[in-house]
Amino acid sequence: MTALFALATSLLWGLADFGGGLLSRRAPALTVVVVSQSIAAVVLGAVVVATGGWSEAGPRLWFAVAAGLVGPVALLSFYKALALGPMGVVSPLATLSVAVPVSVGLFLGERPGLVQVAGTAVAVAGVVLAGGPQLRSAPVQRQALLLTLVAALGFGTVFVLITEASTTVTGLFLALFVQRVTNVAAGGTALWCAVRRGTPALPGGGLPWTSLPAYGFVGLADVAANGTYAVAAQHGPVVVAAVLASLYPVVTALAARGFLRERLRGLQAAGAGLALLGTLLLAAG
Length: 285
Fold this sequence. Notes:
Residues 3-130, 144-282 form the EamA domain. InterPro entries: EamA_dom, EmrE-like. This protein has one domain (2-284). 76% of the residues lie in helices and 0% in strands. The chain contains 12 helices and no strands. The chain has helices spanning 2-23, 29-51, 61-84, 87-93, 99-107, 114-131, 142-164, 169-196, 212-234, 238-245, 248-260, 266-284. The longest helix has 28 residues, at 169-196. The protein is globular, with a radius of gyration of 18 Å.
């Protein structure tokens, strides 16, 4: 079950990042974060009320609050990076986020078997190769690379925090809701400060209402990915869950290839194949 939920996480995050990066080319990245997370918060609020999630309130929710403070920084950094550089190049670099939960898992005493170690190495190498061939030729700015590293550290931290925020399904709904409300509060405050400094919050023509479904998809896919990752990490080795979930950059790169016609070179295709092989090894281990 760990492998299934972790792979679902990579698919959801990959599509959410593709959508968020695409929207950030038309509107300020901070606006994309606030609007998408606001929609997710409203939906989650309704789910919490329907499931009676308020009864699960407790000290663990502080982990959700912390994740909600870190999340907007990671999302904003990553969306800006995706808007600055080719998605097929920038996105795979975010796989460095796996270092945080893997380190925590090892610190807590997890010792993956030989097959899992091999699968981890092959999967991570595959994700890096999926973006590496273009680094020398693509116009990837230093700012985009720095933003991606900040995002990777933030995503990895959220991985760890959201896993600790709940122990039950209804508690997970409440934790995700608290995380999203904190996301919106932190992002909204940052957006308000940016507007006060003269930065426009909306594109020239205003927020296109026809794009709201896309914003909703980004927000809901992101929150669903957080949920599936929490389930994966709670029901199996954190190392396995983290590595499989970190395959989301491959999904983003493939989406960019399919929808934006970003060129996928031979070495990138080989990298995607290695990532798949690593996934199979991890699942088998």
